[in-house]
Design goal:
The structure holds two protein chains of two kinds. Chain A is an alpha+beta fold. In chain A, 68% of the residues lie in helices and 8% in strands. The mean pLDDT of chain B is 90. Chain B is an alpha/beta fold. In chain B, β1 and β2 (16-25) form a beta hairpin. The chains are: A alpha+beta, B alpha/beta.
Amino acid sequence: MKYLFAEGIHNMYTHGFMSFAAVCVTVACFIIIGSFSMIVYNLGLFVSDMEHQNRIHAFIDESYDTSAAKSVGSQINLVDNVLEAKFISREEAGERFIDQQGGGNAFEGVTAETFRDRFEITLEDNAKMDETVQALGAIKGVAEVKALPELAKGFLTIQRAFNIASVVIIVVLLVVSLFMISNTIKLAMYDRKEEIGIMKMLGATNRFIRFPYFVEGFLIGVISAGLAFLLEWGLYDFLAEKITQSQNLQLFNLVPFREVVIPMVFAFGATGLLVGMFGSVMSIRKFLDV
Amino acid sequence: MIDFRNVTKIYDTGNHALNGVSLHIDDGEFVFLVGPSGSGKSTIIKLLTAELMPSSGSIQVNGYQIESIKKSQIPDLRRTVGVIFQDFRLIENKTVFDNVAFGMRIVGASAKQIKERVDYVLDLVGLENRGRRFPHELSGGEQQRVAIARSLVNNPNMIIADEPTGNLDPQRSYEIMMLLERANALGTTVMIVTHEQELVNRFTKRVIAIANGKVINDGMDGYYLNESD
């Protein structure tokens, strides 16, 4: 076993150029997929954030005083699909309204009594907006519920289309990358056709021949994944900094790479190992039939 | 032991490589298999190592029945047969020592056993100081001696040498033949496939002549017979 491990490492060294080519192609493919995945992740968060800004307002009966109005909040929080319910007093609502209208003397006569106490409600899932609005309307003390279901549906449609497009593009990129990586490994293995033929003629079993290639593929996979991960990190941080510095792109707030380090390590590592080990073992299969 | 009974081999292209060949070689024999190019010699070697299957007839090699051998048994069969090729077929990125040791590593020999045995066979073929060299650093004759050492390392029942002197000058050819004769004297069956008439005639051994896929002569007189003879 020790010999077979050593052979795998030795093979990688002695077929240095082909190993280098396999690592380069794998790294390039990983960076393309990794970058696209990060773009998709950030856009997904952006759309989700926009969606959550589409809040429902539950207006409290005018006859309730502030403390009674606040107490309705406990009933609201019990409704399914309510993520957060923030109480806004009639005074606060009045100030907000005047601010939104640009302030000024025109609103001097407008008092807090003109407005109603209300709850600003964020939903967990905007797809269930209609049912939630009905449930909120049935609560004692809630005089009226205002929502924009069309806007919510619009966001839902955008998010669904975006999710489908992302999955399709990532799958296509993955298939293209696997094809490229497998072809590069095949090319590297073709270099060994003669060597494998000799081993077979000397009585080596397929398992004995495969194992060093398995080790070699494992190393190529790990090295490629490691390099790709570090390059991806550097590239992402560089772009994130540029976006932060840009006046026009400040709307997009990229998630710091540190927040996704663990899932990215697993994704790069697992894909690297699978591609490296199975790529090399599958590639030598036809040469073993001697 | 080799036993061919009425063996025919027809390739997918329709080429009749062997037509009803029957021959028997006992353990410990030294045999030349001779014939012109395309006569079917290489097909016989491929059949002996189960690289090819016969179209009809039966073949027994060292107790293995080739026409019904399981895939999992092929490595075991090949370990009983040491094959030496005209083009040596050494692994270029391995040292002489590692090329020879490979056969023992396949069977799981310990590092100590490998060291002792490889040193012994390298000494036997006169390459005791060449263990750390790579094949491309050796002459043709030396590379062929590495191939012989590799074929001997696992004490095989039989050595099949395919044109072992094809790339060598007469002096080196003679030395290689002496090495193979020495292996035979130690009890190994040796079958040398060649079309070098002079070399065959120099040794008084059994000669099986083949032409157009048929055995045309099988004699102990030690002479290479052409089709015209």
